[in-house]
Amino acid sequence: MRKLLMAASAALLMANSFAQTATQIKYLSGTDNKNTVAWDFYCTGGRNSGKWTTIQVPAHWEQQGFGAYNYGRDYKTYGKNFRFADEQGLYKHKFTVPAAWKGKEVFIVFEGSMTDTEVKINGKSAGDKHQGAFYEFKYNITDLLKYGQENLLEATVSKMSSDNSVNNAERLADYWVFGGIFRPVYLKVVPKQHIDHTSIDAKADGSFAMNVFVDNILQKGEVLAEIWDAANKLVASAKLPVNVKDSVVKLTAKVANPLQWTAETPNLYKVNVSFLIGGIRVHRVSDKFGFRTIEIRKGDGIYLNGTKIKMKGVNRHVWWPETGRAVNPEIDLMDVKLIKEMNMNAVRCSHYPPDKNFLNLCDSLGLYVLDELAGWQKAYSTKAGEKLVKEMVIRDANHPSIFFWSNGNEGGHNFALDDDYGQYDLSNRPVIHAHHRPGNAFNGIDCNHYEDYYSTQKLVADTNIYMPTEFLHSQDDGGAGAALNDFWELHWNAKKGAGGFLWALVDEGIVRTDLNNIIDVNGLNAPDGIVGPHREKEGSFNAIREIYAPVKIWMKDLASNFNGTIPVENRYHFTNLNQCTFHWALVNYRKPGDLFTGYDVMKSGQLTSPSIAPCGEKGNLQINLPDDWKGYDALVLSAFDPAKNLIYKWTWNVKDNAGLLNDIVSMKDTAATTITENDSLVTLRGGEVSIMISKKDGQLAGVRNAASDPLSFGKGPVLVSGTATATGVKTYKEGDAQVAEVAYTGNMKWAKWKIYPSGWTQLDYEYELNGNYQFAGISFNYPENFVLGAKWLGKGPYRVWKNRLQGVTNNVWQNVYNNTQTGSAPWIFPEFKGYYGDITWMELNTVEGKFCVASPDTGLFVRLFDFYGLSGVRPHPELPVGNLSFLDRIPPIGTKLALNISYNTSALGPQSEPNKLNGTFKRTLYFYFGLPKPSGENKQFVMPKVNDLF
């Protein structure tokens, strides 16, 4: 017992020693945008100016009701009449420090303040004015403090810098610009003799080196580094002497067989670094790091730990609508998880270094990071930039997630700063230039922005590695997932294709406190995201998820001789597919009359995960299907990564459309069919349904269900491409059905309306097209303002484009009408209006009742009403005539740049080119105008089965 007590006392003494020698932090502000502290505040201009009041810190003062708003490109909007809001914010805050701090070194640290910041403590200057908004800076205020008493902090923050190069680099930019102390402020307390910071170089082979920067060394001592693994086991240590007035000590060690850091295996270690005098710990700091080796092999590719990797990346602004660039750990975590959910592995911190918590999450969850010095098309001066590079690199150097330092954006490169990064980064990461003009490759990597598919083909065959740091601009519903499949396949298969970074993750919509709290995206400038301001997922989100899935499955349909074998390609860089898990299910879809959407899981199981090596190796998944598997509607396959996160879920129909409609479309009934004619109309009646065909143009002139109001569906079929002129209508009986057949001249050959005793109506038609067309098929009209919603069996829940067919799966989906224009308020997703793919049946719910359309033929697209893909004077791409279309082909969508005549949609790749048509198209559509009578299994509702896997 005595030994146990002695051991416990020793452990407690050591713990107290650690606590007493560790750096102490005292926050003067809040820690994030959710946890703030009120400071005294005076704004010199704009709203609520000219008086002392209070403000929450950290925050932008615009979001607290002060000053005026500016988007960085306002000078383009307002021209000669433009002027930046140039107010200053005067901050005051009283705080106390304990008397016990006397004899220690005390620093005041600002993690981010826009843009010039002057600091006083108790009326005396803390140091030179800091210039630059996104960088952590500090002042030694040891001699300015009153210990054991109240102290006064005063900070004057100028929105516009007195250094024009800082304004050019940060504020004349394509993003919102704000003012204020928007990241935390705190006191950092260390012993007189202390460790200031460290810089680590930890290689994949276990080699460890560290520069330990010490300050104010007055006695000879030692620096001790102890390396601990994730299980808190000491795996290596190193110790070196420190002499008086030393400023840096370099330690080296070796860890045997380290767990390497990659985005797929984010293995982290911890190093505790202590400054000792006479064996007594004086100061201790801790850093997390990872063992990995980054190489640029010029003319070849980017290598991590000896394996070539390709970037599946996105650009990210630090953003939240209510608080701008003041965020919190939950927002950071949300963004990292969203990026990884899209099966991405990389993020570019555009166009400034982020809050450090985001980088911690990239380390621990696994993302490759491009950390960027601000400089949006114009660069910092050397004098200003040298300080900011130092601040950025010293803060961020030990993050294993950071792969590159980016020295500015699109011409915002001061070449004199290129060699500064290595002065503070012991691992000497590569420096790149994120540029928008060809011929600016740096360090063997060409990062040119917004090349089209065909120019990209030339670049990946050229001398340099090609890694665009911006491509497929995602304004509105364009870009991002649209055309990405062609670009990704090109990069994946090209030796010097290194992947790239989509523009951008988030629509930068700010809550305008001066405009009744509307969310403002500044017109066409800021709705550039794959997700909305509050992270609402757009259609491209799931398309990217499928395209970038490391488990690559190309199978589109189940072949007639399908035996459960599914070819698969492993596009992980480091993970064997035997580390993943796979589940299958046979399902039956819900019917139009059912209360619920989705499907019922009838049988399910888990596959044996095959051993398929990473980096493109191919093999097969094998499902042991039951003998009766063809009796079910669909087969579902789900893939999960080693951490049990869903990679993607694929659904293939087992039955053809005719089989899926067997219990829905019913032709037979005891009712009779009739046909009547007058000078202008042919009327077909079956059961309770009547349809009227115009003899003049062959179009549907009216429909009615005796049990409900007339439906305003009609004015079709109209051929959406080509010409069609009706030349006559003939009528006849076919079995127990009545038929009206319309003859045409032009591209439409014929159309035949047939009504059955059940009231179901069949439309058969044929047309011929030869040439390039945006769309092909037929249209009708229905008043959009009458529509309440839609329910369908087909691909969903999002709309599709010719070059964005990924990210949607077969199921029964439902959507309530909304008028969302992607990129604008309200951010309601999925959008209701658009093109929907592989429709088997669709039921529209309207104020006039319900009506249903179905097709026994595959490949049907349904277009729902008028909508904008990209903002412009007219809908872009161009829409078909009518507003309710049944199509065999749909158009691709471009990007913001595709509206420029020199950069057209077809240049984005094969899937973005117009439809090349040569031949005839035949299709059958079934309609029921009203609520269809149930048939077969549809007569009763079946409660869905619960299955945790799906």
UniProtKB/TrEMBL annotation:
Domain Glycoside hydrolase family 2 catalytic span(s) in chain numbering: 295-510
Keywords recorded for this protein, A-Z: Calcium, Glycosidase, Hydrolase, Signal
Protein's UniProt keywords contain DNA-binding: no
Domain Glycoside hydrolase family 2 immunoglobulin-like beta-sandwich: 194-292
GO CC, one annotated term: beta-galactosidase complex
Pfam family, one: Glyco_hydro_2
Region forming the signal peptide: 1-19
UniProt xrefs under InterPro entries: Bact_Beta-galactosidase, Beta-gal/glucu_dom_sf, Gal_mutarotase_sf_dom, Galactose-bd-like_sf, GH, GH-type_carb-bd, Glyco_hydro_2, Glyco_hydro_2_cat
GO molecular function term, any single one: beta-galactosidase activity
Cofactor: Ca(2+)
Domain Glycosyl hydrolases family 2 sugar binding: from-to ranges: 53-190
Biological process per Gene Ontology, one example term: lactose catabolic process
Subunit structure as annotated in this protein's UniProt entry: Monomer.
Xref: PANTHER family: BETA-GALACTOSIDASE
Family: Belongs to the glycosyl hydrolase 2 family.
Name of the molecule in the record: Beta-galactosidase
